[in-house]
Specification:
This protein has a 5-stranded mixed β-sheet, sandwiched between helices. The chain has 4 helices and 5 strands. By secondary structure, it is of the alpha+beta class. It has one domain (2-128): 3-Layer(aba) Sandwich (Aminopeptidase), CATH 3.40.630.30. It has helices at 12-24, 30-40, 91-105, 120-128, and strands at 2-6, 46-51, 57-68, 72-82, 110-113. Helix 3 links the parallel strand 4 (72-82) and strand 5. The mean pLDDT is 94.
């Protein structure tokens, strides 16, 4: 397996990464994805992809390094998805190992992520990978304000 980062403007973002990412984030269109990556890249957003030896993209991780008061420095995983055709083959484990190595090399104290409460299969995977459940994540949707 080959694991690499893709920078904004790389044609593989559309041909390889986006089809796999859309398995987790079906609302993403190509224009919306490019807007998000264009805005997010200066904020630290990066995408790492896993390829089989035959060249098929089978996994995607969106992540960033964040300095804050709770963790000091952490690598936060925004997205982690293995293509449906490659699940339970070690892709997710290899992506997480790659990200953990990068986190350690850049002085991070934590590797963390959020996972939707309905994703029980993913939770089993994260627990097997020695992640702990340490917090609740609260969200308040913000509607557009009327003038």
């Amino acid at each position: 397996m080959k694991i690499i980062d893709l920078e904004p403007g790389d044609r593989r973002l559309d041909t390889d990464l986006l089809p796999v990412l859309r398995e987790l984030r079906p609302h993403l269109t190509a224009p919306l994805f490019h807007e998000i990556y264009g805005n997010g890249h200066p904020q630290g957003l990066r995408f790492t992809v896993a390829y089989t030896d035959e060249g098929a993209c089978v996994g995607v991780a969106g992540w960033r390094i964040v300095d804050n008061t709770s963790a000091i420095r952490k690598l936060y995983v925004d997205d982690l998805v293995t293509a449906a055709t490659a699940r339970s083959t070690g892709v997710g484990r290899q992506l997480l190992a790659h990200l953990e190595e990068h986190a350690r090399a850049t002085g991070c104290h934590e590797l963390n992520l959020d996972s939707g409460t309905q994703r029980t299969g993913a939770h089993r995977f994260y627990l097997r990978e020695r992640f702990d459940i340490v917090a609740f994540h609260f969200t308040k949707p913000l509607d557009a304000q009327a003038d």
